[in-house]
Write a structure and sequence with these properties.
Elements lengths: L1 H36 L5 H20 L1
Helix pairs in contact: 1-2
Organism: Streptomyces kanamyceticus
Protein name: Antitoxin
């Protein structure tokens, strides 16, 4: 089980390294979509969540 999780982590790191820019763009689009659907009521929280997710993807890609 531990080996399977380690392999999954390694694959996630490889994907983040190879396609981090596309993942980041996708996160931005999803954030904009959610913000639009909620009428902008939670813009600050959505922006913060998107920024944190983008930072995580960036860090994951550097490992």
């Amino acid at each position: 089980m531990f080996d399977a999780l380690k392999n999954l982590k390694d694959k996630a790191e490889d994907l983040a390294e190879a396609h981090g820019d596309k993942i980041s763009d996708g996160l931005e689009k999803v954030g904009d979509l959610i913000d639009d659907k909620t009428g902008g009521k939670h813009s600050d929280k959505i922006d913060t969540a998107v920024d944190k997710a983008q930072d995580y993807v960036e860090k994951l890609g550097k490992k």
